[in-house]
Design a protein that fits this description.
The complex is a heterotetramer, with two copies of chain A (330 residues) and two copies of chain B (209 residues). With 330 residues, chain A is of the alpha/beta class. Chain A has two domains: 175 residues, Rossmann fold (3-Layer(aba) Sandwich), CATH 3.40.50.10440; 137 residues, Hypothetical Protein Tm841, Chain: A,domain 3, CATH 3.30.1180. Chain A has eight helices and 14 strands. Chain A has a six-stranded mixed sheet with strand order 1-2-5-3-6-7, with helices on both faces. In chain A, helix 2 crosses helix 3. Chain A starts with 10 loop residues before the first helix and ends in a 5-residue tail after the last strand. Chain B is mostly helical and 209 residues long. Chain B has a single domain, classed as Serine Threonine Protein Phosphatase 5, Tetratricopeptide repeat, CATH 1.25.40.340. Chain B is built from nine helices and no strands. In chain B, helix 3 packs across helix 4, helix 5 runs antiparallel to helix 6 and helix 7 runs antiparallel to helix 8. The radius of gyration of chain B is 16 Å and the shape is globular. The chains are: A alpha/beta (330), B mainly alpha (209). The interface between A and C is large, with 59 and 59 residues. Bound molecules: adenosine-5'-diphosphate (2 copies) and magnesium ion (4 copies). One magnesium ion binds next to loops of chain D. Chains A, C: Its EC number is 2.7.1.121. Chains A, C: This is phosphoenolpyruvate--glycerone phosphotransferase. Chains A, C: InterPro entries: DhaK_1, DhaK_dom, Dihydroxyacetone_Kinase. Chains A, C: It holds the Pfam family Dak1. Chains A, C: One of its GO terms (molecular function) is glycerone kinase activity.
Chain lengths: 330, 209, 330, 209
């Protein structure tokens, strides 16, 4: 394992420290917790809290700030934080108007965040939740765990955060977040594995000529292990699977996110975007805005995901609203 | 004499030893069909539970189980934190007020633990999760009237091994679909260590349950 | 070679296309050239042009936009563009007030940009240049090639761009850029090599337990090949070598850049920053602002660089001035 | 008959062949002490020069050399683009107005090419750059009065090989300091191919210079 770290068991604490030190104008660490929270509070606003396992940087603390999250809870690498830490996040985000939790759909995250909601209710904080499940690589089924939440979650943060900033009540903020969730679909792929620092070796192996289509952000596989394809072929596969889901149709306007999983150069993401934008044009889908970069990573995995968010007037306005976070600026 | 506070302490210690010893193995199981953190999560949580429970002298099994449970909930994280934490917490609630736990009480405690797991995880049997160890072990306790250490351990082991042939439908392994077959479920493996440890304590300490 | 590309010989063209498609509100491709230029022009302003070999994304096109560059010239991977393309950049950036070239100190870049200046003068465009040489890993000598320009160059873009935006004449813009150059020092390190697409294999090899201190942004080595060190040790080494140069002293105020070289997770960069900020505090150097992320990469190299820019009132104001580019926002 | 337009065309073609054949070798030389793009750069530039010069019928060596030079300047990039481009451009200027080039004129053309390289690159001899091939070859031309193909090629080869033991002081290899010793300078290797090609054309075509 080759990492620029000190102690594999201490990476999250040290990251939070370095992050708070770098961005003390935007966020601060709540002492003795796994919580990074906004410096500049908007009073009487619904609080937005997200988080989960670490290793997805800039998710989620990079989206803490005006117009997006009020608090991010940073669990151990790839491991949802416990309910006590989520509760700390809720407390940090609450200013009396209630708190919305944006949860990615993984068993662990859902259970821990739900337990935290129960704890918060005992402390008479009003809390509600939305669960993001944008990953079309996984079958949608109520019987199984269902779809995962991946990079499309960042759009949900943006929409929920912007709505909250308008002073809207919790129910409305939740409604906007749920609309974003209904409208966003994503799919990823990977060229290489990643190594959890405390594990010391890669989570899986991939041959020099292989890639995995449908890869999740923790190295969970998806659709198939195939031979290396070109960027154009990858773009075709990801987009066609997303469009098959039926949410995005000719005539629609969308926001696009080309998300790097950790070690994919920006150059490659832009090459992919060239093809994605051609395909969408061909399909009669108008691209309103494109975001290219690392938004939700899987430590140092090589690969990417593509997300499409269908827009209406409300979502456009919320997407365009100011956001002043360390990893997302509008 | 039934299970006392001391025996619960030994149970925690023995489980911790097994978890620490098998941390890499548990992580490897999770690398095969999950995200490769299960051993790390359990080892972190149990280490903290040992530390936490060393701070106090406990009056009753319930008190000790409660601190054990709360530490797991807080420190394990992921899917296994709430599940193991809830299981132990439900046991704590079930044996509240008792200085010793007899066979019937132990059975009830396990029933409540399982109920807690099912409620928290929304999983059913045969979905390749730790439910596939906890459900058979509860049935085993219900079908008997006294604790048979060897048979109990055997049952737990068999249940764990049977998860190997299942296709996962809950938890991360579910994303693998058919590819999840052929690997033991990590949460079931650590559940086995927990149950085996209980069995060993009961046998070694001559507990009569 | 595992890359998400189509044709190794076409990566730069396809990247420019994907970039222009993604950010058509900020930048556009000048047809049949290697130039990406601003959409929104500030009339009568000194034009700022930078560029060089590609593979350093988001450098340099990511810094094209209001408050920074007017044009970026994208050469082949790790290869300075020829003078004709630099001339196209100069033409795109010129609006009558002259153009300043920000050149990184490499033989190839200096020669090609200087030839472009000669061509521009023949077309009666006023052009001047500054040469950035912030890398303290290399000996400073007028006899040899001298110090390399690395990530500190991004600060020079910011300062020169902000100054130009004030409407200052070319000489003043150049003076501010030169002050930034005098005040900035950087040093990098690497954990792994990178692969030029057309070369198909890594530029060098490094054992599983080795790192290189003083690595440049094209894989050129620097000070020493050593055994893997901790993040804290790396921070100590980079900062101590930077401070040895004598530019940054107790009582000074600085801007810090922790720059990822391509595949180093943000988590690791923040861990490094935690230590960097401790060391600077200890030395009595005040951190005014910290930038953490990928600013000037070496394709998919793992590693980082640290840059310190000493600030005075003018530089602070210019650093804080608005910048609306795809990779740098203020 | 001295060097005509046709011979210059053959020179370009032969050099291109050698560059394309040795593209990987040149890149490997640059991987050892530079940034690993020299073969790629030269191959791209020469391929373009072949394409460009195929478009026209050239009246004179100078015209052909000029298009060759301009294409290198535009398409090679990096350090070698301006250097090889300038060298060929200076030759073009030096032989302007001539239909054929004799030995003295060739010598002058090389002198001017070297001057161009020195002015552009600010390098001196012994700094492990292509100057270490061009300088000795100019001296060799000056010291003789007629073109001896074998000796010319030998001189170029020897000069290239001598760069192996030098420590670089200009170009990227300079960053390696002592570690640059033991590797042939990539730009010197491609300079050798250029010179060897000229020598082969002169010999094969029976050019009398
Ligand atoms: N919904 C669920 N119900 C019951 N058990 C579950 C559920 N989801 C996951 N598990 C158990 O949790 C284990 C994984 O735990 P762990 O790796 O620590 O958490 P995570 O999956 O969050 O990384 C699985 O092996 C499985 O036994
Ligand atoms: N200042 C200089 N003067 C003369 N030759 C130089 C100079 N700098 C570099 N070179 C030559 O250029 C060669 C490298 O060319 P190339 O790899 O194509 O460019 P780059 O170094 O920009 O990647 C070196 O091997 C050396 O011969
Ligand atoms: Mg996990
Ligand atoms: Mg796991
Ligand atoms: Mg180069
Ligand atoms: Mg080179």
């Amino acid at each position: 394992m080759k990492k620029l770290i000190n102690d594999p068991n201490n990476v999250v604490e040290e990251m939070m420290k370095g992050m708070a030190a770098a961005h003390h104008d935007v966020l601060k660490h709540v002492p003795d917790t796994a919580v990074l929270t906004r410096v500049e509070r908007t009073a009487g606003k619904v609080g937005i809290v997200s988080g989960g396992g670490s290793g997805h940087e800039p998710s989620h603390a990079g989206f803490v700030g005006k117009g997006m999250l009020d608090a991010a809870v940073c669990g151990p690498v790839f491991t949802s934080p416990g309910p006590d830490q989520v509760l700390e996040g809720i407390k940090a985000a609450d200013s009396g108007a209630g708190v919305l939790l944006v949860i990615k759909n993984y068993s662990g995250d859902v259970m821990n965040f739900e337990m935290a909601m129960e704890l918060a209710e005992m402390e008479t904080i009003t809390v509600d939740k939305v669960i993001v499940n944008d990953d079309v690589a996984v079958e949608d089924s109520t019987y199984t765990t269902g779809r995962r939440g991946i990079a499309g979650t960042v759009f949900v943060h943006k929409i929920a955060g912007a709505k909250a900033e308008t002073g809207a009540p919790l129910a409305e903020v939740k409604a906007s977040a749920e609309k974003a969730i209904r409208n966003v679909r994503s799919m990823g792929m990977a060229l290489s594995a990643c190594t959890i620092p405390a594990a010391g070796k890669p989570g899986f192996e991939m041959a020099e000529n292989e890639m995995e289509i449908g890869m999740g952000i923790h190295g969970e596989p998806g659709i198939e292990r195939t031979l290396l394809k070109t960027a154009d072929e990858v773009a075709e596969e990801l987009i066609s699977k997303i469009l098959q889901d039926g949410v995005h149709k000719s005539g629609d306007e969308v926001a696009v996110m080309i998300n790097g999983l950790g070690s994919t150069p920006l150059m490659e993401l832009y090459i992919l975007n060239g093809k994605v934008s051609d395909i969408l044009e061909e399909k009669g889908i108008t691209v309103y805005k494109t975001f290219v970069g690392e938004y939700m990573t899987a430590i140092e995995m090589a690969g990417c995901s593509v997300s499409l968010l269908k827009l209406d007037d409300e979502l456009k306005e919320l997407l365009d609203a100011p956001a002043h976070t360390t990893a997302f600026r509008m | 004499m039934g299970l006392t506070t001391k025996h619960i302490q030994l149970w925690l210690q023995k489980t911790n030893e097994k978890i620490q010893e098998n941390k890499t193995y548990l992580t490897e199981l999770d690398q095969a069909i999950g995200d490769g953190d299960h051993g790390i999560n359990m080892a972190r949580g149990f280490e903290e539970a040992i530390k936490k429970t060393a701070e106090s002298d406990y009056e009753s099994p319930s008190d000790l189980l409660k601190d054990w449970a709360m530490t797991l909930i807080s420190k394990v994280g992921g899917a296994s934190g709430p599940l193991f934490g809830t299981a132990i917490l439900k046991m704590s609630m079930s044996v509240k007020g008792k200085a010793e736990i007899n066979y019937a009480e132990l059975t009830t405690a396990f029933e409540e633990a399982l109920a807690g797991i099912l409620q928290r995880g929304h999983a059913a049997e045969n979905q390749k999760t730790l439910v596939d160890v906890w459900s058979p072990i509860v049935r085993f306790l219900q079908e008997n009237t006294a604790f048979d250490s060897a048979a109990f351990t055997n049952q737990a082991k068999e249940a764990m091994e049977q998860t190997k042939d299942m296709q996962a439908e809950k938890g991360r392994a579910a994303y693998l679909k058919e590819r999840s077959i052929g690997h033991i479920d990590p949460g079931s493996a650590s559940s086995f260590y927990l149950l085996q440890s209980l069995s060993e304590v009961i046998e070694k300490e001559g507990v009569t349950v």
